[in-house]
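Annex B. Sample input.
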Amino acid sequence: MGKRVTSLKKYDVVALGELLVDFTENGISAQRNPILEANPGGAPCNVLSMLQKLGAKTAFIGKVGKDSFGIMLRDALAEQGIDTKNLIMDEEVLTTLAFVQTAPDGDRSFSFYRNPGADMMLRKTDVDVSLLQNTRLFHFGSLSMTAQGIEAATKMAVETAKGAGALISFDPNLRPPLWDRLDVAKEKIAYGISQCHILKISDDEIAFFTGSMDVDDGVSKIQKQYRTPLIFATMGKKGSRVYYAGNKVECEPFLNEDTIETTGAGDTFLACVLRGILEYGLEGLDTNKLYNMLEFANAASSIITTRKGALKVMPEEREVWNFIRDRKR
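Annex B, continued. Sample output.
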Protein backbone atom coordinates (compact mmCIF):
# COMPACT_ATOMS: atom_id res chain seq x y z
CA MET A 1 0.00 0.00 0.00
CA GLY A 2 2.88 2.35 0.56
CA LYS A 3 5.65 3.26 2.92
CA ARG A 4 4.76 2.56 6.51
CA VAL A 5 4.57 5.53 8.89
CA THR A 6 7.18 4.80 11.56
CA SER A 7 6.36 4.90 15.24
CA LEU A 8 8.01 4.10 18.56
CA LYS A 9 4.73 2.74 19.96
CA LYS A 10 4.65 -0.97 20.83
CA TYR A 11 1.22 -1.57 19.27
CA ASP A 12 -0.33 -0.46 16.02
CA VAL A 13 -3.92 -0.92 17.20
CA VAL A 14 -5.48 -1.59 20.59
CA ALA A 15 -9.22 -2.26 20.79
CA LEU A 16 -11.63 -2.48 23.72
CA GLY A 17 -15.07 -4.05 23.79
CA GLU A 18 -17.03 -7.24 23.37
CA LEU A 19 -15.61 -10.71 22.79
CA LEU A 20 -18.29 -13.37 22.48
CA VAL A 21 -19.40 -16.57 20.78
CA ASP A 22 -21.45 -16.30 17.58
CA PHE A 23 -23.55 -19.42 17.09
CA THR A 24 -24.21 -19.67 13.36
CA GLU A 25 -26.25 -22.24 11.45
CA ASN A 26 -24.13 -24.90 9.76
CA GLY A 27 -26.41 -27.54 8.33
CA ILE A 28 -29.15 -29.88 9.55
CA SER A 29 -28.64 -32.89 11.80
CA ALA A 30 -29.88 -36.42 11.14
CA GLN A 31 -32.77 -35.58 13.49
CA ARG A 32 -33.59 -32.61 11.21
CA ASN A 33 -32.47 -30.05 13.81
CA PRO A 34 -30.32 -27.04 12.89
CA ILE A 35 -26.64 -27.52 13.71
CA LEU A 36 -25.09 -24.43 15.33
CA GLU A 37 -21.35 -23.76 15.09
CA ALA A 38 -19.62 -21.83 17.89
CA ASN A 39 -17.58 -19.13 16.12
CA PRO A 40 -15.38 -16.69 18.06
CA GLY A 41 -16.74 -13.19 17.45
CA GLY A 42 -17.20 -9.65 18.61
CA ALA A 43 -16.61 -6.69 16.31
CA PRO A 44 -13.47 -5.22 17.95
CA CYS A 45 -11.65 -8.57 17.89
CA ASN A 46 -12.73 -9.27 14.31
CA VAL A 47 -11.05 -5.98 13.39
CA LEU A 48 -7.87 -6.96 15.26
CA SER A 49 -7.79 -10.40 13.67
CA MET A 50 -7.80 -8.94 10.14
CA LEU A 51 -5.21 -6.35 11.13
CA GLN A 52 -2.95 -9.17 12.33
CA LYS A 53 -3.31 -10.81 8.91
CA LEU A 54 -2.13 -7.52 7.41
CA GLY A 55 0.99 -7.39 9.57
CA ALA A 56 -0.17 -5.09 12.36
CA LYS A 57 0.70 -5.56 16.04
CA THR A 58 -2.52 -5.57 18.08
CA ALA A 59 -3.85 -6.01 21.60
CA PHE A 60 -7.32 -6.43 23.08
CA ILE A 61 -8.85 -5.10 26.30
CA GLY A 62 -11.95 -6.93 27.47
CA LYS A 63 -13.53 -9.58 29.66
CA VAL A 64 -14.94 -13.07 29.13
CA GLY A 65 -16.26 -15.62 31.59
CA LYS A 66 -13.95 -18.14 33.22
CA ASP A 67 -15.86 -20.90 31.46
CA SER A 68 -15.33 -23.19 28.48
CA PHE A 69 -16.42 -20.50 26.01
CA GLY A 70 -14.16 -17.90 27.59
CA ILE A 71 -11.18 -20.24 27.37
CA MET A 72 -12.03 -20.97 23.73
CA LEU A 73 -12.13 -17.26 22.96
CA ARG A 74 -8.87 -16.51 24.75
CA ASP A 75 -7.16 -19.30 22.82
CA ALA A 76 -8.66 -18.09 19.52
CA LEU A 77 -7.23 -14.60 20.01
CA ALA A 78 -3.84 -15.98 20.91
CA GLU A 79 -3.88 -18.16 17.77
CA GLN A 80 -4.40 -15.05 15.66
CA GLY A 81 -1.45 -13.31 17.34
CA ILE A 82 -3.55 -10.76 19.24
CA ASP A 83 -2.01 -9.75 22.59
CA THR A 84 -4.35 -11.07 25.32
CA LYS A 85 -2.55 -9.87 28.45
CA ASN A 86 -5.49 -7.53 29.25
CA LEU A 87 -8.21 -10.10 28.54
CA ILE A 88 -9.78 -10.68 31.96
CA MET A 89 -11.47 -13.96 32.92
CA ASP A 90 -14.52 -13.19 35.10
CA GLU A 91 -15.06 -15.66 37.96
CA GLU A 92 -18.80 -15.01 38.33
CA VAL A 93 -20.39 -13.87 35.06
CA LEU A 94 -20.58 -16.12 32.00
CA THR A 95 -19.29 -15.39 28.51
CA THR A 96 -21.72 -13.55 26.24
CA LEU A 97 -23.40 -15.65 23.54
CA ALA A 98 -25.02 -14.50 20.30
CA PHE A 99 -27.22 -16.60 18.03
CA VAL A 100 -27.12 -15.51 14.41
CA GLN A 101 -30.04 -16.17 12.07
CA THR A 102 -29.05 -15.91 8.41
CA ALA A 103 -31.48 -14.87 5.66
CA PRO A 104 -31.30 -16.36 2.13
CA ASP A 105 -29.37 -13.29 0.89
CA GLY A 106 -26.75 -13.68 3.64
CA ASP A 107 -28.00 -10.85 5.86
CA ARG A 108 -28.35 -11.51 9.57
CA SER A 109 -30.40 -10.99 12.72
CA PHE A 110 -29.12 -11.55 16.26
CA SER A 111 -30.37 -12.95 19.57
CA PHE A 112 -28.08 -12.21 22.51
CA TYR A 113 -27.60 -13.96 25.86
CA ARG A 114 -26.08 -11.04 27.75
CA ASN A 115 -28.05 -10.01 30.82
CA PRO A 116 -25.40 -9.55 31.96
CA GLY A 117 -22.57 -11.06 29.95
CA ALA A 118 -18.94 -11.05 31.04
CA ASP A 119 -17.97 -8.43 28.44
CA MET A 120 -20.23 -5.92 30.23
CA MET A 121 -18.34 -6.38 33.50
CA LEU A 122 -15.09 -4.66 32.46
CA ARG A 123 -14.21 -1.86 34.88
CA LYS A 124 -11.75 1.03 34.81
CA THR A 125 -9.55 -0.77 37.32
CA ASP A 126 -9.30 -3.76 34.93
CA VAL A 127 -7.75 -1.70 32.15
CA ASP A 128 -3.97 -1.83 31.66
CA VAL A 129 -3.31 1.78 30.70
CA SER A 130 0.15 0.93 29.39
CA LEU A 131 -1.51 -0.58 26.30
CA LEU A 132 -3.37 2.67 25.68
CA GLN A 133 -0.23 4.74 26.13
CA ASN A 134 1.71 2.58 23.68
CA THR A 135 -0.59 2.31 20.68
CA ARG A 136 -0.76 4.31 17.47
CA LEU A 137 -4.51 3.82 17.18
CA PHE A 138 -7.31 2.95 19.61
CA HIS A 139 -10.57 1.42 18.38
CA PHE A 140 -13.94 0.99 20.08
CA GLY A 141 -17.67 0.65 19.34
CA SER A 142 -20.97 1.50 20.96
CA LEU A 143 -21.58 -1.91 22.57
CA SER A 144 -18.99 -1.17 25.24
CA MET A 145 -21.30 1.62 26.42
CA THR A 146 -24.45 -0.46 27.04
CA ALA A 147 -23.76 -0.65 30.80
CA GLN A 148 -22.41 1.96 33.22
CA GLY A 149 -19.29 0.15 34.41
CA ILE A 150 -17.88 -0.69 31.01
CA GLU A 151 -18.97 2.70 29.67
CA ALA A 152 -16.78 4.36 32.30
CA ALA A 153 -13.90 2.05 31.33
CA THR A 154 -14.42 2.86 27.65
CA LYS A 155 -14.41 6.62 28.18
CA MET A 156 -11.33 6.41 30.37
CA ALA A 157 -9.60 4.37 27.65
CA VAL A 158 -10.50 6.92 24.97
CA GLU A 159 -9.22 9.78 27.10
CA THR A 160 -5.99 7.94 27.95
CA ALA A 161 -5.25 6.91 24.37
CA LYS A 162 -5.99 10.39 23.06
CA GLY A 163 -3.80 11.93 25.71
CA ALA A 164 -0.95 9.70 24.56
CA GLY A 165 -1.35 10.88 20.97
CA ALA A 166 -3.21 7.89 19.51
CA LEU A 167 -5.68 8.20 16.66
CA ILE A 168 -9.20 7.16 17.65
CA SER A 169 -11.38 4.89 15.51
CA PHE A 170 -15.09 4.32 16.16
CA ASP A 171 -17.71 1.99 14.70
CA PRO A 172 -21.28 2.40 15.99
CA ASN A 173 -22.01 -1.30 15.30
CA LEU A 174 -25.65 -0.74 16.23
CA ARG A 175 -27.37 -3.80 17.66
CA PRO A 176 -30.87 -2.66 18.75
CA PRO A 177 -31.64 -5.76 20.92
CA LEU A 178 -28.79 -4.79 23.28
CA TRP A 179 -30.20 -1.37 24.13
CA ASP A 180 -33.04 -0.74 26.58
CA ARG A 181 -33.85 2.44 24.65
CA LEU A 182 -32.67 3.46 21.20
CA ASP A 183 -32.45 7.12 22.18
CA VAL A 184 -29.73 6.07 24.64
CA ALA A 185 -27.97 4.20 21.83
CA LYS A 186 -28.05 7.37 19.76
CA GLU A 187 -26.57 9.33 22.66
CA LYS A 188 -23.67 6.89 23.07
CA ILE A 189 -23.04 6.82 19.32
CA ALA A 190 -22.88 10.61 19.40
CA TYR A 191 -20.18 10.38 22.07
CA GLY A 192 -18.16 7.97 19.93
CA ILE A 193 -18.41 10.17 16.86
CA SER A 194 -17.44 13.23 18.88
CA GLN A 195 -14.23 11.54 20.00
CA CYS A 196 -12.99 9.81 16.86
CA HIS A 197 -10.69 10.77 14.02
CA ILE A 198 -11.86 7.83 11.90
CA LEU A 199 -15.52 6.83 11.68
CA LYS A 200 -16.79 3.68 9.97
CA ILE A 201 -20.59 3.77 9.68
CA SER A 202 -23.11 1.79 7.64
CA ASP A 203 -25.94 3.25 5.57
CA ASP A 204 -28.48 1.85 8.06
CA GLU A 205 -26.63 3.48 10.96
CA ILE A 206 -26.47 6.78 9.09
CA ALA A 207 -30.24 6.65 8.66
CA PHE A 208 -30.73 5.78 12.33
CA PHE A 209 -28.41 8.47 13.63
CA THR A 210 -29.22 11.36 11.28
CA GLY A 211 -32.73 10.54 10.09
CA SER A 212 -31.56 10.78 6.48
CA MET A 213 -31.93 7.90 4.02
CA ASP A 214 -29.44 9.61 1.70
CA VAL A 215 -25.88 8.64 2.65
CA ASP A 216 -24.27 11.85 1.38
CA ASP A 217 -26.80 14.00 3.22
CA GLY A 218 -26.43 12.00 6.43
CA VAL A 219 -22.64 12.20 6.33
CA SER A 220 -22.87 15.94 5.68
CA LYS A 221 -24.94 16.32 8.85
CA ILE A 222 -22.34 14.37 10.83
CA GLN A 223 -19.48 16.43 9.39
CA LYS A 224 -21.18 19.73 10.19
CA GLN A 225 -21.84 18.79 13.79
CA TYR A 226 -18.72 16.80 14.68
CA ARG A 227 -16.08 17.74 12.08
CA THR A 228 -14.89 14.13 11.90
CA PRO A 229 -11.73 14.14 9.72
CA LEU A 230 -12.29 10.81 7.97
CA ILE A 231 -15.61 9.02 7.45
CA PHE A 232 -16.06 5.65 5.75
CA ALA A 233 -19.63 4.77 4.77
CA THR A 234 -20.43 1.15 3.93
CA MET A 235 -23.49 0.42 1.81
CA GLY A 236 -23.58 -3.37 1.45
CA LYS A 237 -24.22 -4.36 -2.15
CA LYS A 238 -23.83 -0.71 -3.22
CA GLY A 239 -20.16 -0.54 -2.23
CA SER A 240 -18.51 2.07 -0.04
CA ARG A 241 -17.60 5.75 0.14
CA VAL A 242 -15.04 7.80 2.00
CA TYR A 243 -15.33 11.47 2.93
CA TYR A 244 -12.17 13.44 3.61
CA ALA A 245 -11.15 17.11 3.43
CA GLY A 246 -14.24 18.10 1.46
CA ASN A 247 -13.88 15.27 -1.06
CA LYS A 248 -15.89 12.10 -1.62
CA VAL A 249 -14.45 8.94 -3.17
CA GLU A 250 -16.65 5.97 -4.07
CA CYS A 251 -15.80 2.35 -4.88
CA GLU A 252 -18.05 -0.33 -6.36
CA PRO A 253 -18.50 -3.58 -4.43
CA PHE A 254 -17.11 -6.98 -5.35
CA LEU A 255 -20.40 -8.91 -5.43
CA ASN A 256 -19.85 -12.58 -4.74
CA GLU A 257 -22.15 -15.41 -5.86
CA ASP A 258 -20.68 -17.59 -3.11
CA THR A 259 -21.85 -15.33 -0.26
CA ILE A 260 -23.31 -17.34 2.61
CA GLU A 261 -23.44 -14.72 5.38
CA THR A 262 -22.28 -11.16 6.04
CA THR A 263 -20.98 -11.64 9.59
CA GLY A 264 -17.72 -9.73 9.98
CA ALA A 265 -17.86 -7.99 6.60
CA GLY A 266 -17.94 -4.51 8.13
CA ASP A 267 -15.21 -5.43 10.61
CA THR A 268 -13.02 -6.76 7.80
CA PHE A 269 -13.61 -3.56 5.84
CA LEU A 270 -12.67 -1.41 8.82
CA ALA A 271 -9.48 -3.34 9.52
CA CYS A 272 -8.35 -2.84 5.94
CA VAL A 273 -8.91 0.91 5.91
CA LEU A 274 -7.23 1.23 9.31
CA ARG A 275 -4.22 -0.54 7.83
CA GLY A 276 -4.26 2.15 5.15
CA ILE A 277 -4.14 4.85 7.83
CA LEU A 278 -1.26 3.05 9.54
CA GLU A 279 0.54 3.07 6.18
CA TYR A 280 -0.25 6.59 4.99
CA GLY A 281 -1.09 8.59 8.11
CA LEU A 282 -4.14 10.80 8.44
CA GLU A 283 -2.73 13.89 6.73
CA GLY A 284 -2.67 14.62 2.99
CA LEU A 285 -4.63 11.60 1.79
CA ASP A 286 -5.21 11.98 -1.95
CA THR A 287 -7.98 10.51 -4.09
CA ASN A 288 -5.82 7.65 -5.34
CA LYS A 289 -4.86 6.51 -1.84
CA LEU A 290 -8.43 6.73 -0.62
CA TYR A 291 -9.73 4.72 -3.58
CA ASN A 292 -7.06 2.05 -3.10
CA MET A 293 -8.06 1.73 0.55
CA LEU A 294 -11.73 1.29 -0.39
CA GLU A 295 -10.99 -1.21 -3.15
CA PHE A 296 -8.85 -3.43 -0.93
CA ALA A 297 -11.40 -3.22 1.90
CA ASN A 298 -14.33 -4.04 -0.40
CA ALA A 299 -12.48 -7.06 -1.77
CA ALA A 300 -11.56 -8.43 1.66
CA SER A 301 -15.14 -7.92 2.83
CA SER A 302 -16.44 -9.85 -0.16
CA ILE A 303 -14.14 -12.77 0.62
CA ILE A 304 -15.23 -12.99 4.26
CA THR A 305 -18.92 -13.27 3.24
CA THR A 306 -18.11 -16.67 1.72
CA ARG A 307 -17.04 -18.10 5.10
CA LYS A 308 -18.75 -19.05 8.33
CA GLY A 309 -17.74 -16.71 11.13
CA ALA A 310 -14.98 -14.14 10.78
CA LEU A 311 -12.35 -13.96 13.50
CA LYS A 312 -10.59 -17.26 12.70
CA VAL A 313 -11.02 -17.18 8.91
CA MET A 314 -9.85 -13.73 7.83
CA PRO A 315 -8.21 -13.68 4.38
CA GLU A 316 -4.47 -13.34 3.89
CA GLU A 317 -3.22 -10.13 2.25
CA ARG A 318 -2.00 -11.94 -0.87
CA GLU A 319 -5.39 -13.62 -1.20
CA VAL A 320 -7.09 -10.23 -1.31
CA TRP A 321 -4.69 -8.89 -3.96
CA ASN A 322 -5.22 -12.02 -6.06
CA PHE A 323 -8.98 -11.65 -5.72
CA ILE A 324 -8.80 -8.05 -6.98
CA ARG A 325 -6.54 -9.04 -9.85
CA ASP A 326 -8.81 -11.89 -10.93
CA ARG A 327 -11.91 -9.69 -10.81
CA LYS A 328 -10.25 -7.09 -13.04
CA ARG A 329 -9.39 -9.55 -15.81
